[in-house]
Amino acid sequence: MKTAAVKPAFNVDELRAQFPILKELVHGKPLVYFDNAATSQKPRRVIKAESAYYATINANVHRGVHTLSTKATEAQEAAREIVRKHINAKHAHEIIFTSGTTAGINLAAASLGQLLLKKGDEVVISGMEHHSNIVPWQLACERHGATLKVIPITDSGEWDLKQVPFSGKTRILAISHVSNTLGTINPVKKLIAQAKKQGIVTVVDGAQAIAHLNVNVQDLGCDLYAFSGHKAYGPTGIGVLYGRDELLERMPPWQGGGEMIDTVTLIQSTWAKLPFKFEAGTPNIAGIIGLGKAIRWMEDYDKAVMARHEHALLQHATKELLAIDGLRIIGTAKEKVGVISFVIDPSSASGSGVHHYDLGTLLDQQGIAVRTGHHCTQPLMDRFGVSGTTRVSFACFNSMEEVDTMVAALKKAIKMLR
Ligand SMILES: Cc1ncc(COP(=O)(O)O)c(C=O)c1O
Fold first, then answer.
1. Average pLDDT over the chain, rounded to whole?
2. Among all residues, which ones are annotated catalytic?
3. In a mutational test of the pocket of ligand 1, which residue from 99, 130, 240 has the highest number of ligand atoms less than 8 Å from its CB?
4. What is the largest CA-CA distance in the chain?
5. 145-149, long-range: CB within 8 Å, 24+ apart, which pairs?
6. Which of 128, 180, 185 for a ligand 1 pocket mutation test, highest count of atoms within 8 Å of Cβ?
């Protein structure tokens, strides 16, 4: 009988030792990397896998009979199976490799738009979406004469479930699993169930969920689920669009070219089987292999234990930050991943606030990487009446000491700027 592999105990120092970049100095200071929601750092195993591919088996996939092409194809398809298992998709052909979440959602919007939308139809998104889950739907609506409807956001940064604008005309629901700006973990399963009862096709932007939550697409019940490799310890330029196969079969291709066809004449073409119908052109083979390694790396640990560590960082940082005069956290949902967005309002003592860009620059001087600005969520900034925020976002390799370093640096920066 096969026994389950024992996962190593969670040890942040052991984990950190696997990330070469964490040894870098920035402005002569040890790097504190708190910009994981933008892109996470990569463990050595992922970096090595990409260069090993180029050094030993580089060849184009699915098109050759020679040994290297066969090896590259096998490595790519092995990674597809790793992804399938990780998100509990039913079939490997439901895993489409894309260049990232943005590409996955553009594919979904263009193809579903063509399949489902006509004049007068409606697409529902939420008010906390990343621009990647807004603009493709605006384009699709414009193309087909449909209208975009929006779930409003509460003061704590959650969906207002009493105001979900479903109607008899709603065809598509496109929502994020986790907010990149607020950290809110959204009740996607609940809303998907509601949508399904009304025959609405559901698309989930999982960009911020994949590194922090156990994603189970069959349990969520979604039709499509998009994510990027680079936010989950994998390479940039590679992502996944999961799709339920019955729906993918009905969806028209998005891009045309090699690999996605079955036959081509000068008059017309027919399409390849899934998933290749949606994978036009030479894929990012090294990226796909790197993504497989990143997922395997995450699976070496218990995601729930990683999530507990990140939650402890979140709680500690939240407490310390709230003690700073004038600091206001935007996004206070009960269920959050390790993301904190904040602004510095005028303090009672000095009467002046601090701009996020100035803060980000001074933190960088102290070796601390945070993100400042609108985080590609301008409508959400408008909702909260701010032009931008400072955002810290944690990964499993971050430590409590780093949180303390950041808080001390922040206090120093605020003092200089007020
Ligand atoms: C919630 C969310 N959706 C979509 C994206 C777009 O991801 P990518 O730039 O990897 O395509 C991001 C990236 O920040 C994100 O946070």
1. 96
2. 376
3. 130
4. 75
5. 145/117, 145/118, 145/119, 145/120, 145/121, 146/113, 146/117, 146/118, 146/119, 146/120, 146/121, 146/122, 146/171, 147/120, 147/121, 147/122, 147/123, 148/122, 148/123, 148/124, 149/122, 149/123, 149/124, 149/125
6. 180
Instruction: Report the nearest atom of ligand 1 relative to the CA of 99.
Output: 11
The answer to whether 159 and 179 have CB atoms below 8 angstroms apart is no
Among 391, 386, 307, 305, smallest CA distance to 353 is for: 386
Taking a C-beta distance cutoff of 8 angstroms, is the pair 386, 328 a contact?
A: no
pTM above the 0.85 mark? yes
Residues in the chain: 418
Encode pLDDT of 137-179 as tens digits: 999 999 999 999 999 999 999 999 999 999 999 999 999 999 9
Distance 375 CA to ligand 1 centre (A): 10
Q: Which CATH architecture has domain 47-299?
A: 3-Layer(aba) Sandwich (3.40)
Three-class secondary structure of residue 391 per DSSP? strand
How many A from CA of 412 to the centre of ligand 1? 31
Cα of 39 from ligand 1 centre, angstroms = 9
Q: Please calculate the CA angle 370-372-378 and round it to the nearest 5 degrees.
A: 140
Across residues 51-67, what is the average pLDDT?
94
Q: Does the domain formed by 12-36+302-417 have CATH 3.90.1150.10?
A: yes
Domain coordinates of the chain in residue numbers?
A: 12-36+302-417, 47-299
CA distance 343 to 322: 11
